Amino acid sequence: MPRSKPIVILQSVLAGVTALLGGAALADFVDVRVIGLANLVMAAVTVGLGVYLSGSNVPAPTVLATQE
Questions:
Q1: What is the phi/psi pair of residue 29, to 5°?
Q2: What is the model's pTM?
Q3: Spatial distance between the Cα atoms of 48 and 60, rounded to a whole number of angstroms
Q4: What does pLDDT average to over the chain?
Q5: DSSP string computed for 19-32
Q6: Which domain range does residue 14 map to?
Q7: How far apart, in whole angstroms, are the C-alpha atoms of residue 14 and residue 27?
Q8: Is 68 within the bounds of a domain?
Q9: Using CA atoms, how far apart are residues 27 and 11, in angstroms rounded to an integer?
Q10: For the chain: N or C, fewer Cβ within 10 A?
Q11: What is each CA distance from 21 to 46, 59, 61, in whole angstroms?
Q12: Position 13 pLDDT exceeds 80
């Protein structure tokens, strides 16, 4: 099933911000607490998006009946 453009854009932004946070942590560019908090927020958004996407994709053989 192809993904919609907003979901692809959001996933690419999440990947970019995660890479940016990793680089900032390695370079000691930002305080460790700020990076940790930002990383927790990014993880929460990523997990929430993953749960939402896995819940919205139901394979056809497991559906017993449809309601119109």
A1: -80, -35
A2: 0.65
A3: 24
A4: 81
A5: HHHHHHHHTT-S-H
A6: 5-56
A7: 20
A8: no
A9: 24
A10: C
A11: 14, 36, 41
A12: yes
Q: Residue 65: inside a domain, yes or no?
A: no
**Does a structural domain hold residue 35?**
yes
Residues in contact with 1: Cβ distance below 8 Å, sequence separation at least 6, in sequence order: 57
Is 11 in a helix, a strand, or coil? helix
Higher per-residue confidence, 67 vs 16: 16
pLDDT at 41: 92
Q: Judging by beta carbons within 10 Å of its beta carbon (0-12, 13-18, 19+), is residue 10 exposed, middle or buried?
A: middle
Q: What is the structure's pLDDT at 59?
A: 63
**How far apart are alpha carbons 14 and 9 in whole angstroms?**
9
DSSP tally for the chain: helices H, then strands E = 2, 0
Sign of CA dihedral 3, 9, 14, 15: positive
32 in a domain, yes or no? yes
